[in-house]
Amino acid sequence: MFMNVFGFFGWIAAWIGLLYVLVVFLPPGFSFLFVLPLIYCTYRAVVQLRYFPPALRMRRIMRTYPWQVLQRVPHGLESHPDVSLKHHGWFEFPNPAHPEQRLALVYAQHLRTEWWHRRMAPRAKPQLKEQIESIWFAGDPRFIGLIAVGGRGGTAPRRLHVLEQWAESRNGQRLSDWGVTEEDIERGRRVGVYPASS
Questions:
Q1: pLDDT over 90 (residue 93)
Q2: Is the Cα dihedral 58, 60, 61, 65 positive or negative?
Q3: Which of the chain's termini has less CB crowding within 10 Å, N or C?
Q4: pTM of the complete model
């Protein structure tokens, strides 16, 4: 969250700084040199705003669910058989109520997924694939999840990304089939997921 705030105000400060240099130190003939940098700073500040809703959702997930470290989690970039709508990759996690059942959580948006995609690709180099052998996970795969990889020394999560559950409403399964309780539904609502009670 700090980096999002820092980035947003950093781009605004860069825009003001460029404008100040143009107005105070340079004659009007140099204006054309500053058009593209000013437009780029404006674009980056607007893009930075898009990162705030996912960052706030990540905070809610981390406050509601504990972190777990999982090894060799099945994943892919191709379409998942349980998800009919277009998505940008998936990871499968065990259902907390029925551990033998695996549920797919998907990247619903392409925003900030490049790092993950390079490591999930079938032709990725072994040293890249190795970086996602151990995954940090917080959430409930019946609703939503937050994934990350360990930082230096593996002591703290980094490269956080929200994954969403899309299978339930598309293949006719009901929450009761997944062993969802009222308490699970309430925890899901705390992170912004509003499933209908079954």
A1: yes
A2: positive
A3: N
A4: 0.79
